[in-house]
């Protein structure tokens, strides 16, 4: 049974310069205990998707135009404000990219931990708040947690600040943790430590994780399953090992070809030709078709469905891949361009 079910989710932003079709029919199921990575180029809608799960996209300009999101059976899109407040942090916790933005410079770490804890459990005594804060800071491997309570954010390093935010996200004992580019603002060594911490928390607390990054290396370090997004749609969804070994979608292949390989110095990284589409005027059919080396006439006409590729858990949305698997079954009229 899935903890999270997203069905045909569609979301637009209405702006002065027109309507941006940002989520174009997202289908995603996440089972309890899974660690799923969402990867894709900047602007493909990863953060908007994550914020949709907590209904955090500002509305207006954001508007959900179709689909459903269910968390443990509850209809998130139909929740009233009181139900949303209960759900946020308690069912689904979220960690954002930039720890500086989300910690208030004028309050101590202790005051900010207490504020989050009080929101979840209003009746906690001062002593209980202190004990819970220390336990949470220790759970994210922060040394001298007791002393940290009286420090201000600027007295902490970037990695420590991100750990404090992870501790805050865990304060409501969420079942699903969403981490949106949690290490992008950190330098490489600290990045590795924070990723190791997230992987460890997932194991220790039995958390379900949705990790968002533009970096396949970051996702591959933590997640067993990888979902690739392109321009508001999922183009491939596969076990990490299968995705790295045998990527199916031409966009995923392009992403992998762009990564330098230290074991093969002769391999020259290549970039995907063209640029990401303008979401106010997205290409018809498959949004990747103008950049795709395998594009066929059908690709400009019909959006390809997400279907099993070489294994049941390996899904891909590509007419060319579908045709190469079973041409008669799919009956596509397209011929290679
Ligand atoms: N508040 C907003 N108002 C208008 N458009 C928005 C808003 N938030 C996001 N968008 C648009 O939605 C699209 C997807 O943005 P999103 O932040 O989800 O991308 P992303 O894949 O997470 O990329 P990045 O890694 O750069 O954050 C972008 O075109 C962005 O301009």
UniProtKB/TrEMBL annotation:
Chloroplast recorded as keyword: no
Keywords: ATP-binding, Cell membrane, Membrane, Nucleotide-binding, Transport
Gene Ontology terms describing biological process: peptide transport; transmembrane transport
UniProt keyword annotation of Transferase present: no
Compartments reported by the entry: Cell inner membrane
GO molecular function: ATP binding; ATP hydrolysis activity
Coiled coil location: none
Protein's membrane topology: Peripheral membrane protein
InterPro entries attached to this UniProt entry: AAA+_ATPase, ABC_Ni/Peptide_Import, ABC_transporter-like_ATP-bd, ABC_transporter-like_CS, Oligopep_ABC_C, P-loop_NTPase
Domain ABC transporter: residue ranges: 4-256
GO cellular component term of the entry, any: plasma membrane
Cited PANTHER family: DIPEPTIDE TRANSPORT ATP-BINDING PROTEIN DPPD (PTHR43297:SF2), OLIGOPEPTIDE TRANSPORT ATP-BINDING PROTEIN APPD (PTHR43297)
Sequence similarity: Belongs to the ABC transporter superfamily.
Protein name: ABC transporter ATP-binding protein
């Amino acid at each position: 049974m899935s903890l999270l079910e997203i069905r045909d989710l569609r979301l637009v932003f209405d702006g002065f310069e027109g309507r941006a079709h940002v989520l174009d029919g997202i289908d995603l199921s996440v089972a309890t205990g899974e660690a799923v990575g969402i990867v894709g180029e900047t602007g493909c809608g990863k953060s908007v998707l994550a914020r949709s799960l907590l209904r955090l996209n500002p509305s207006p300009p954001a508007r959900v135009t179709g689909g459903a999101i269910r968390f443990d059976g509850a209809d998130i899109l139909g929740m009233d404000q009181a139900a949303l407040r209960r759900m946020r942090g308690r069912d689904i916790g979220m960690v954002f990219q930039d720890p500086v933005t989300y910690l208030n410079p004028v309050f101590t770490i202790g005051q900010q931990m207490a504020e989050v804890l009080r929101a979840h459990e209003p009746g906690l005594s001062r002593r209980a708040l202190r004990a819970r804060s220390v336990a949470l800071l220790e759970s994210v491997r922060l040394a001298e947690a007791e002393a940290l309570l009286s420090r201000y954010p600027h007295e902490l390093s970037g990695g420590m600040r991100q750990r404090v935010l992870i501790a805050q996200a865990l304060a409501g004992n969420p079942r699903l943790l969403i981490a949106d580019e949690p290490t992008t603002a950190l330098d490489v060594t600290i990045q590795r430590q924070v990723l190791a911490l997230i992987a460890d928390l997932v194991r220790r607390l039995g958390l379900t994780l949705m990790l968002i990054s533009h970096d396949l290396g970051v996702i591959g370090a933590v997640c067993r399953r990888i979902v690739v997004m392109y321009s508001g749609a999922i183009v491939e969804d596969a076990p990490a090992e299968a995705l790295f070994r045998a990527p199916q979608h031409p966009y995923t292949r392009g992403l992998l070809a762009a990564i330098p390989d230290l074991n093969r110095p002769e391999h020259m990284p290549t970039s995907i030709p063209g640029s990401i589409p303008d979401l106010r005027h997205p290409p018809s059919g498959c949004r990747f078709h103008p950049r795709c080396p395998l594009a066929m006439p059908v690709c400009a006409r019909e959006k390809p469905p997400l279907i099993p590729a070489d294994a049941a858990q390996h899904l891909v949305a590509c007419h060319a891949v579908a045709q190469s698997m079973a041409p008669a079954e799919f009956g596509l009229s397209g011929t290679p361009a």
